[in-house]
Amino acid sequence: MDRKQISHRNENPYLRHSRADRLFASGLKPDLEQSLSPRGMCERPLDFIAGEQLCDRELWAKFVEQYRLKSDTAKQEWRSEYWGKMMRGAAFVYSVTQDEALYAVLEETARDLLTVQDADGAFTTYEPEVQFRKWDLWGRKYILLGLLCFHSICRDGALKEEVLTAARRHADAVLERVGNEEGKLPIEQTINVDQGQMVHGAMNSLSILEPMVLLYRATGEKRYLDFAAYLVETGARGCGNIFELAYADRLAPYQYPYTKAYEMISCFEGLLEYALTVGSEKWKTAVIRFAYRLMESDITLLGSAGTTHEFLDHASVHQVDAGDGGVGQETCVSVTWMKFCARMLLLTGDPLFGDCFEQTLYNAYLGALNYDHVCRPECIQAGFRIPGLETVPSFLPFDSYTPLLGGTRGQGIGGSLLFSDGTYYGCCAAIGAVGIGIAPHLAVLRAKDGFSVQLYEQGVYKTKTPAGNAVTFSIETDYPVGDAVRIRVELQGEERFALSLRIPSWSVENRLAVNGRPLAVTPGVTVIRRQWQTGDVIELGLDMRLEALRPTPFERDVLRSRIIWRTCDMVPFLMEETPEHMEHVAFRRGPLILARDARLQKGEEPVPALCRVTVFPDGERPLTLIDCASAGRTWQEDSAFSIWMRTKTQ
Ligand SMILES: [Zn+2]
């Protein structure tokens, strides 16, 4: 592992205790045969999302209908993304729960979708005269991902074949029109708006890279890999060669020519699949360098990024300075970062990616869940309303943006678009399920010579040992509130294998024992190698001391770019540190970032929270803080909340 790129990590306050000499896990792999029963922090979100979103037949039918109606024709929008995005999340959730009722709904909507494929093979919400413009290819990317995800869980042989054929024909319709051969549209021209400007450097179109590689893997048909090679080697020039920029490793992602956070990370998800498929060390290195740079320069305390609207902006440093275009930290960004971290954890074995995954899960992600069914139709911007159509309040299971500095939840509905019945949906609601569909898989991963526990999710995990014996790991804990994790082993016979544990970088002092006998803890990952048998118990104690976090000084002025929406140009500007910058503090307890909430200051009824801490900022008056995911739950001013607090009164 090239450690050069992690030299800047202290720009990110959450990772301040991370150590260059930490141990990495090796040979991490998801355990596809494992039976998972998560009963900790993941349980309620899984039930909520499966029950209230993924099993909603009417919602699926509405998404499919958009293809029939070609409803994005008039304004070239992105209703096309909803079905594929939600199907991907649904397939991930199904991979955890194996719930028959959910499977039945997914099979039904997959069959329904197959009825809206056009004669040329495309699934598109655009009429032919506007196809391959603006968000058309982006939507086609998600349909392809959704089809491939359903294909991976489909149990009906005939349907499985039909789905793959549909995916192939759908991709062929893209290959027919897009590419560098004469008469075809280069990828960067698939995004042009009327005046000829590009939106986000066409990164949205470029991100079709990931499903093209996955389709190649599913079919073995070389034309998809050739198209992927075209995107990587030529297509990326349109957005300023972001892949080469990552490989060169001189700039942070927020310094690239285009900085739309979610689209950019999506392109690198594709580059990783491409690199692994063709065995390219260069592109694998580029993805790893990109991931570390992003972790250092842009991930906020909540584990999201893009505090200036939805654009990367060096937020690890300037997250205490008010953004200049909305509250940012889009849920699409949080979820895509979680998925990317999970992928990077497997690839590199670096436990820092496990740290980052849980940081986002427990802070940005759980905080975005709309358990109370708050509806804010007034958030739909005027430009997205349809004249003469009344907006009908619609339930979205995920909020889109999270403030860091005194604000409310529910300030906007990312990517919200209306349907013909006046209801609406949004990008973040459609993508959300992916996050919770990944988390339980990270609890017990396969690793070199055994297993690695990377997420301390209470629950029961059943699988087979390297020698093929049945084994059950029961994780008993109230982490991330409590500091103690017990792992019980039940094993058929006795067997020697390795079991490693992720030691979070913030956990400086730790205790570890097996059957009561203390063991040394190493930073990063601690490996326990022994002859295991039923009844063995591992006890891990983590460092839950409250820590005050200060902002990172600028050190130098920050050159950033900002979008001019009228022309979609990115223009650079210099950001200087203000005197107020360093006058902020935030609090971390374990992986939980704490917040003040207006309800606590009023001292009325008890505020439900996972974790509650009282601090004395001026040495006298108490200030009660709660975990930030529990803060702001009313989505109104009465629960306005803040992660960063001013240390001087203005
Ligand atoms: Zn979104």
Mean pLDDT: 93
Radius of gyration: 24 Å
Query: Order of strands across the biggest sheet?
Result: 1-6-7-8-13-10-11
Can you give the helix content as a percent range?
Answer: 25-40%
Low-confidence stretches: 1-7
Coarse structural class: alpha+beta
Beta-strand percent range: 15-25%
The number of strands is: 22
Bound molecules: zinc ion
CA-based shape: globular
Distance between the termini: 47 Å
Q: How would you describe the oligomerization state of the chains in this entry?
A: single chain
Could you characterize the architecture of this molecule?
By secondary structure, the protein is α+β, with helices and mostly antiparallel strands. Among the domains are: 41-175, no CATH class; 443-544, Immunoglobulin-like; 547-646, no CATH class. It is 34% helix and 17% strand. The chain is built from 18 helices and 22 strands. A 7-stranded antiparallel sheet has the order 1-6-7-8-13-10-11, with no helix packed on it. Strands 14, 17, 18, 19, 20, 21 and 22 form a 7-stranded antiparallel sheet that branches. The protein has a 4-stranded mixed sheet with strand order 4-5-9-12. Strand 2 and strand 3 (424-425) form a beta hairpin. Helix 2 packs parallel to helix 4 (100-113), helix 8 runs antiparallel to helix 9 and helix 11 runs antiparallel to helix 12 (281-297). The longest helix has 21 residues, at 157-177. It is globular and about 70 Å long. Bound molecules: zinc ion. Zinc ion binds next to helix 14 and helix 16.
